[in-house]
Amino acid sequence: MQENSSSATEARVAGTRIVTFGIAAIVLILGVAALLLFLNLPDADAFNQKVEQIFIENDDLTSPAELRLLEILAQSGTAFSGVITSYRVIIFVLLVFSTGLLVAALVFLVMIVLLNRRMAAIERQGIQVSSMVLSRERGAVSINDMEFKLTDAALETLAVLAEARMDGDVLTGAEIEAVISGRSAADCDEAAGATRIKRLRDALGNQMVAELLIKTIARKGYMLAIDRERISMV
User: Are 226 and 164 a contacting pair, CB within 8 Å?
Assistant: First the structure.
């Protein structure tokens, strides 16, 4: 348990470190991109400065039509300045939005990786069961203080597996069927015991939990992946 706790702590620390470095890298990259983009955007007053230069260089334009043309150019410069300013605001908002999306994607990616590692560890080590109590009177089994209601057939199958686990035995499907039916294993079908195991797993509900709790050992049979000292029957 100490080793599992240490590995889990190391995984959390590694995940936190990855998230921190990833967020810093995202912010840095987008910050540099924003800086370069804003530096290369034309100045908002560039058009107005050109119009002002035209006024200065052509002070001999005095006819009403020429003055009207200069007024239109000045108004166009003001409109262009407003457009450039709005573009800067839009680009800034899009960069902030992109930063948020990339950070969220990184966090979710790290969470998925850590979850997959934990699931892989569970698959390798099995479920950590602190206690399993079978109660024939209530027709239920309590696993780590979680109670599962079972049918009589499923409870009987689980009881057979529990007794075999306490004896350190691995039972085939035929042997399970023989113990429950009271017949000889030679007279029982392997498929009948396999069917009982499947119904027991279905009764436990969660397929992943049931598969990890009831181990299938190739060419040997079935057994509970629980420490024999943690099993009790009432």
Answer: no
Place of tokens 């839009």: 90
Compute how many other C-beta atoms are within 10 angstroms of the C-beta atom of residue 135: 15
**pTM to 2 decimals?**
0.45
The answer to whether residues 161 and 214 touch, using CB atoms and an 8 Å cutoff, is yes
Under CATH, which number does the domain 132-233 receive? 1.10.10.10
Complete edge-to-edge strand list for the sheet that includes strand 140-143:
146-149, 140-143, 132-135, 231-233
Cα–Cα dist 144/128, whole Å: 9
**Both tokens assigned to 160:** 């057979």
The HSE-up count of residue 177 (CA atoms within 13 Å, CB side) is: 18
Report the candidate in 32, 22, 4 with the shortest Cα–Cα distance to residue 126: 4
Q: How many residues are listed for the chain in this entry?
A: 234
Q: What does the pLDDT profile of the chain (234 residues) look like in tens digits?
A: 444 445 555 656 666 777 777 778 877 887 787 787 777 776 656 666 776 676 677 666 666 776 676 677 667 766 777 777 777 788 888 888 887 888 788 778 778 877 777 766 655 555 566 778 888 888 888 877 777 788 888 888 888 888 888 888 888 888 988 988 888 888 888 888 888 888 888 887 765 566 667 777 877 887 877 777 777 776
Ramachandran quadrant class, 186 (left: phi over 0; alpha: psi -120 to 50; beta: rest): alpha
Q: Enumerate the domain spans of the chain.
A: 2-125, 132-233
